[in-house]
Amino acid sequence: MKKKRLFSGGLGQLTIPFVAICLLVLFNVIRDLIMIFVLKTPDYISFFSIEITKNNIGNSVLSGNLISIINGASELAVLAIGMTLVTAACGGQDISVGAAAAIAGSVFVKVLKASGNINAGTVILAFLCACIVAMIFGAFNGTLVAVFKIQPMIATLILYTCGRSIAYWINGGATPTVESPIIEGIGRFIPGIPIPTPVLIVAVMLIVFKVLFRFTSLELFTQAVGINQSAARLNGINPTLIKLLSFILLGACVSVAGIIGVSRLGLINHETLLLDVEMDAILAVAIGGNSLGGGRFKISGSIIGAYVIQMLTITLYSMKVSSTDVKAYKAIVIVLLVVIGSPVFKEKFGRFMARRAASKVQAKGAEES
Fold first, then answer.
1. 368 secondary structure, DSSP code
2. What is the pTM of this model?
3. H-helix or E-strand containing 51?
4. Which of 42, 118, 187, 254 is a plausible cystine mate for 100, CB 3.0–4.6 Å?
5. 291 and 164, same structural domain?
6. Residue 62 forms part of a structural domain
């Protein structure tokens, strides 16, 4: 019984993402050994090598595939946090996060350009404006889902369709640049700190949500609504409010991801900013061991799921797989991971392990008798 509770508890939910990372690590270790000792490839750099290099302004920074993984997955990890809440509360997903991020990024750039002087104060003001706008659009999606009872994917299809056009209108169709040491510090490195700033932002976001869950009942209420709305309502929980709040918090995450994306490039391109990130965000939630039908969730699992997706992408690129073929390979691997994490597979695997354990007990009893 103790082992069963452990598997169904916190560690069990993280089994799939941890197994996925271990398999990717093992694959790259074997590949390194083959390239170095069997093929003896000259100038081959190990997948796990980390170097200290100088960036374009002369600061010492960390570089390597592992750094690219945790850095490149930052926007996806932030979006996965909010997507996890929406999935847990509503039993559905928001497919408009990429378009909403483009809107938030456009507002961020618009405020910076209007100020004329980019300093710490204007950056904070631009961030607050982008956050408010993204949360308003999140509230719009949440109202359609929570109040009008529209299925989440259908409700968010509206913003998915028109969101990038709204981002286009905000800056008059232009792609203005924002050049500033502060913006570069947000999207790349802070002088004197060798770790990419987006990685630090993900850590801050995780801490913020952990504190939020620690000092409020939001986590419990969200899970209760996702498991059984009627029972939650009978216990004094307002399902409409919880669903609406989950979309608003996703809006805050969307604004952070959009600002990271803008700061990386130093400009806003409404057509390409976080393009197709919606599916990766949903997959990160699924790979993280969270049920796409709502209920219990672990934000840490979704963040690990984001890193799994990015690690798979970097692994394929390191093998010289073309960008057009990467999506196909990713789809195959992700389908396998999602199937392994499905309730049907878990149930059958659990039965298999139970039968195996029972047969061992019987064999041991027969030997003792």
1. H
2. 0.90
3. strand 51-54
4. 254
5. yes
6. no
